[in-house]
Amino acid sequence: SYGVAQLAWLDRELAGDAPTIVMSHYMLSLAQRDENAGAQPDLIAVLGVHASKIPIVLTGHTHRWLNFTTLPQFPVPHYVVAPTRYDADNFWLIELDENSDAYEILDFGKVDWGTFYSDTWSYW
Q1: CA 43 and chain centroid, separation
Q2: Kindly report the CA angle at 37 between 31 and 42, in degrees rounded to 5?
Q3: What are the residues whose beta carbons fall under 8 Å from the beta carbon of 106, sequence distance 6 or more?
Q4: Contacts made by residues 30-39, CB under 8 angstroms, sequence distance 24+
């Protein structure tokens, strides 16, 4: 869970103008709702306040590739990334536009969604 101090810190960090990719070990569906009486009661609330500046959230924990980019319960696009523990190809190369919140996952197509694995990708 995220306590009052952690959520307040995240809220302050996201308050700037820069687009930010948020990364967390635990996927958003595991974030507790209304876990404290602070200004921001939970992680989803903090992300919701700053959603316009968060192009994606990348998480782990489940050891498989999951795509939660269209689920209405999350205020931001959310991907769960599989670990390299099971497959050394489990990583993404992400190109960020320094002038906007635009990004491109260059090897998005290598993912085998719902599994622990991804395909080998040629980067040249």
Answers
A1: 12
A2: 20
A3: 92, 93, 94, 95
A4: 30/61, 31/1, 31/2, 32/1, 32/2, 35/1, 35/2, 35/3, 36/3, 36/4, 36/7, 37/4, 38/4, 38/7, 38/8, 39/8, 39/11
Closest CA relative to residue 94, chosen from 111, 107, 80? 107
E-strand spans in 20-115? 22-24, 57-59, 66-67, 78-80, 94-96, 103-105
CA distances from 90 to 30, 37, 68, 100 (A): 22, 38, 18, 27
25 and 59 Cβ atoms separated by less than 8 Å = yes
Reported as a pLDDT band with limits 50, 70 and 90, residue 86 is confident
* pLDDT in the model for residue 12: 94
